[in-house]
């Protein structure tokens, strides 16, 4: 799988440099997301701007990442979905489960908003 990871202080950005997120690539993505989680990364942004096709195993890997990070109060954000992938996510009714943003910058803003909210909640307890 061709991809790049940019590790920032509050999040890691994974850019998939593939046209298909299918059964051939989804195990690699799952492994990478689980590894980042185990390393203590709290928030992931997945840039899917180059992805033109996702199958059920690809959606499954997205759901695994979503569950891992949401359970810990973090953000697992998808950014830059093309129309075909967006339509598939909507048909699968995962648009109500997954956090989807039009741009990477909007996903970054959501991460920072979540971090501020989490900090406020922890100081008020």
Total strand segments: 7
Q: Report the average pLDDT across residues.
A: 94
Helix percent band: 40-55%
Strand content: 15-25%
Q: Strand sequence of the main sheet, in spatial order?
A: 1-2-4-6-7
Cα(first) to Cα(last) distance is: 43 Å
Element-level helix/strand string:
EEEHEEHEHEH
Structural domain count: 1
Structure description:
The protein is of the alpha/beta class and 125 residues long. The protein has a single domain, classed as Transcription Regulator spoIIAA (2-Layer Sandwich), CATH 3.30.750. The protein contains four helices and seven strands, in the order βββαββαβαβα. It has helices at 26-38, 56-71, 83-91, 104-123, and strands at residues 3-7, 12-16, 20-21, 43-47, 53-54, 75-79, 99-101. The strands form two sheets. A five-stranded mixed beta sheet has the order 1-2-4-6-7, with helices on both faces. Strand 6 (75-79), helix 3 (83-91) and strand 7 (99-101) form a beta-alpha-beta unit. Helix 1 (26-38) packs parallel to helix 2. It is globular and about 45 Å long.
Write a short abstract of this structure.
The chain has four helices and seven strands, in the order βββαββαβαβα. By secondary structure, the chain is of the alpha/beta class.
Please outline the helices and strands.
Blueprint: E1 3-7, E2 12-16, E3 20-21, H1 26-38, E4 43-47, E5 53-54, H2 56-71, E6 75-79, H3 83-91, E7 99-101, H4 104-123
Parallel strand pairs: 2-4, 3-5, 4-6, 6-7
Antiparallel strand pairs: 1-2
Helix pairs in contact: 1-2
Main attributes of the structure:
4 helices; Transcription Regulator spoIIAA; alpha/beta; 125 residues; five-stranded mixed beta sheet; single chain; two-stranded parallel sheet; globular
């Amino acid at each position: 799988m061709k991809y790049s990871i940019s590790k920032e202080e509050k999040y890691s950005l994974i850019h998939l440099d593939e046209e298909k997120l299918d059964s051939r690539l989804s195990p690699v993505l799952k492994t990478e997301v689980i590894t980042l989680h185990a390393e203590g990364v709290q928030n992931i942004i997945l840039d899917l701007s180059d992805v033109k096709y996702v199958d059920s195993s690809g959606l499954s890997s997205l759901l695994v990442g979503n569950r891992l990070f949401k359970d810990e109060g973090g953000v697992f954000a998808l950014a830059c979905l093309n129309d075909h992938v967006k339509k598939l996510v909507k048909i699968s009714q995962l648009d109500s489960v997954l956090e989807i943003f039009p741009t990477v910058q909007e996903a970054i803003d959501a991460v920072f908003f979540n971090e501020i909210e989490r900090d406020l909640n922890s100081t008020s307890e």
